[in-house]
Amino acid sequence: MAFCNKCGAVIAFAGGKCPRCGTMGEGGTATAGKVVVEDTGFSKEILLGKLERYKQLLGECEELSTMIKPQNDYPVSLDTNFRKRSFMKFFWPFMVIGIVAGYLVYMASSFFLALSTADMVVDSQAAASRVLGDAFGGIIVALIVAGAIIFFGIKVAKRKQEDFNSNADYMNRAAQERYNKGLENQKMINLFQENVTEMHKYEYLVPEEHRTFAHVSSIINFIKEDRAKTVEEACALI
Fold this sequence. Notes:
Blueprint: E1 2-3, E2 10-11, E3 36-37, E4 42-43, H1 44-67, H2 87-116, H3 125-199, H4 213-224, H5 231-237
Antiparallel strand pairs: 1-2, 3-4
Helix pairs in contact: 1-3, 1-4, 2-3, 4-5
């Protein structure tokens, strides 16, 4: 019986073609001295290599399964980022209220001025002076009221803008972190799926009830220590 120099498969006769990889045999000399594991047809070294790879995939999948979370827990994009607001977004109501309040104060002062001068002679110099003085005073009061409201609005609007934008920055950082975690989670999902696909190539080596990291590790150790020549014998020792 001869064995393939490349993959270790059994070749029907020396110098024949390997049924697995197609390599032409050379009389089986390349496998001389190797312990053949009977249940697979592989040399000991090739079988151990395959089992080691299977154990690695099992370990990675077990670790990934504890780390992976549902992908729908994470945002699919950053299109929903919280946008900052300008100063005018908070200030314009105070500006409108200030102007309206100033105008109402001026109109009220004009009304009271008209009542107080109704019984005076229009062409009187004293009446004219009083009208001008009261009108000027009404304008000053209206400007003071409007200015006070606008000044108060500037202070409030700045504070609201800073608070809102600071919160928006925090929410954007949180959204960015969750998005990045989603990307990492998707990478782990992809790796897990790739590992599972590759694991299917090695599952035939080990009985289903022993397809765990711990059991495959024990099987490898038993074969390395020559306590078992076949996977079945190693499984019986577990």
